[in-house]
UniProtKB/TrEMBL annotation, chains A, B, C, D:
GO terms for cellular component: membrane. It is found in: Membrane. It comes from the Bacteria. Belongs to the MIP/aquaporin (TC 1.A.8) family. This is Glycerol transporter. The chain crosses the membrane at residues 47-66, 87-107, 127-145, 152-177, 197-217. The keyword Membrane applies. The keyword Ribosomal protein does not apply. Its main location: membrane. It is a multi-pass membrane protein.
């Protein structure tokens, strides 16, 4: 899968998730401190997140696959893109990196190292949003890998740019990042009590995307053959 | 044209149109809920739409051609890029997908499944805008396919990003998406009664682009030959 | 230079300049109508202009070179990238296209076909801005063509995106577009009386870039040789 | 390293740093003059800076490496990507270019040639921000060069786009640019007295990135071999 050993791959997953979370949390704090307009705050948050995703996936993808996301790692483990024996390590690195990212953002903005978020994100509309968001993310990754591998960093960055706006939840779509965001009481936070709902919705969306893509991305051999036979 | 069978192609057209409409409608609802500034609302709507177009055309183009648009499918059917026997199926998939996209956006934001739009979009300036918008879209697609096939997802995403702002209608440029947007009474809606005017203008613009491009994109053999003869 | 005959090349120059001006003028009208914030207005204007430049240069570059700009055509004529006998036709096509673009934008927004702009843009700071803007544009094009031909559409789109903000004049950098913008009394207009100052500054900047690039982009053969001799 | 002689490389470094600083300073002045919203001001500043970085690195990279940054040149000198005898010249060219960029921006906006900034940027949170910002920048450059050389202009432009928002200091990440920005009393300025703290933090971050990348980017030969042996 990669010629890098496990320690380097785990550091890449941890570092990437940390930079991602530091960007999400930090840009939310920055934007909220500069403007009263919540639309503009989300815009600053979006730009920074979309941009850093392209960068991180490009530079760390060749080392670890740049998953930064337990839902993605789960799909990769199921579809044998990630060796099953590495799955646990990846999840732990992502969680540790995510928490470190929140702490780093707080240090950059002079906030307490961690704080529990008080931002409620719950209910059917939010869960459906997270399911759709993660469904789309996993579909983009699986189809991107198949059709246009080198574009995947851009596809993910652009997808999240859109999903920040088209979902009611601003598209967490990542259980480790959601956990890390429960430790900040700022713009991008989520109450710890709301995590399980998000996690379930994200995993459901990811699995749904895997099921659909397993069918959709495999050319229908029989009917193509018969269609060619007609030519 | 593609090695994927018709069911997969129709699912790709439906899924892509659904994701596109969910993005257009959803990001409009999100943006309007976060800011009072209509310029900023259109900006959030634009960013999300432009970004998702690049993504959807990249990942679904290899399956179905990623047309998501009856006006484009019409041009492709006329110019034999789409088998005529598939034309009807494509249109139905796009319409069904578009409606599903509106419903999905409404579910994500806790709105009624569908509602009739009350947003008036009519009159000569609007129709001329839609004609120009669709003319440009089809010209971009036809020239892009000829000169830089792999850039087409980017070209379409960037073109629509611009056209949201340079047309008075915010550039629907898509009869199926327009229909789906008549079912939401939010920022991106259009009154059902205004649909026929938009449809006619869009088809007229698309046909005009096909006519121009048929001449413009074919190197003028005679005069080039005579010019080469002079060298 | 291209295998397209002169009529097609002139239509490409005219169409491209028309689409460019329609975008500049139209997005300015749209943005100014949606928000009171002039910063946000320029942002909408910038996004649309940068995006359409990438598109237009990609799809029309293979036909005519996608110059859309008399200052660029002048530099190309001097440096023999454009046959001198085509220079006059290119300029006329660009001017006609530009005026058509303003008219098209006005039609889309229900304004009078043309109107004289009352927006003053004059004085040393404005002229220096235009000189810098056009210097940069021509340098980007010449270096881009030399080092990374296929990236030129992106480089020009991104350069203008930046130059809209880093110059006091919002970077017209184009005599034909400036002329066309004197015919709209909206956000992006310029008083006809201010055109000569802009034109002179733009041509001076373009020529300065040509002189610098003629030296800078040619590897210094002697000193490189002596440096290699030392290895 | 490059087939261009030292004078051309130094001009490229100076010109590039000048254009970069003119963009940072000029877009800050422009944005602050158009809007009262500081979030929007930073957005205009960000867009222009990110865009010009992609352009400048693409067109000047083939000549000088497009470092524009003493912290980057230091890392390149240590890792033998820049001949040590050229290091001093590069730094001087970057400083001279940076100061010229501030002057050019001031001329474009009708301000005094230079003025001392009164904008305080000091304290642990700011220094940590600069350390993180420069750490990330150097890591992106080193990994980008290794894995995806041609994407480096995009990676740097996108990284800085994000870092303007995720750091409390808006990510100067460049000692020469910081110096040049101490000479403008506008949005992007920094008090001269605050420079040493920024410089130290930037160099510390750069060196930390070099140390990490030296380990991270080298595939772990032994453990990969043993892992392959198991297959």
């Amino acid at each position: 899968m990669t010629r890098f050993d496990l320690p380097r791959r785990l550091v890449a997953e941890g570092l990437g998730t940390a930079m991602l979370v530091a960007t999400v949390v930090g840009s939310g704090v920055m934007a909220a401190s500069l403007t009263q307009d919540v639309g503009l705050t989300l815009l600053g948050n979006t730009l920074a997140t979309g941009a850093i995703l392209v960068v991180l996936i490009t530079i760390l993808g060749p080392i670890s696959g740049a998953q930064f996301n337990p839902a993605v790692s789960l799909i990769f483990a199921i579809s044998r893109k990630l060796p099953k024996r590495d799955f646990g390590g990846y999840i732990l690195a992502q969680i540790a990196g995510g928490v470190a990212g929140t702490i780093a953002a707080h240090l950059m903005f002079g906030l307490p190292l961690v704080e529990m978020s008080s931002k409620a994100r719950t209910g059917g509309a939010q869960w459906f949003s997270e399911g759709v968001a993660t469904f789309g993310l996993v579909a983009v990754i699986l189809a991107g890998i198949k059709f246009e591998q080198r574009a995947v960093p851009w596809l993910v960055g652009l997808y999240i740019t859109a999903a920040y706006w088209f979902t009611a939840s601003t598209s967490f779509a990542n259980p480790a990042v959601a956990l890390a965001r429960s430790l900040t009481d700022t713009f991008s936070g989520i109450r710890p009590v709301d995590l399980p709902g998000f996690w379930l919705a994200e995993i459901a969306g990811a699995v749904a995307a895997l099921i659909l893509c397993t069918w959709l991305l495999r050319p229908g051999a029989t009917s193509t053959a018969s269609s060619e036979a007609k030519l």
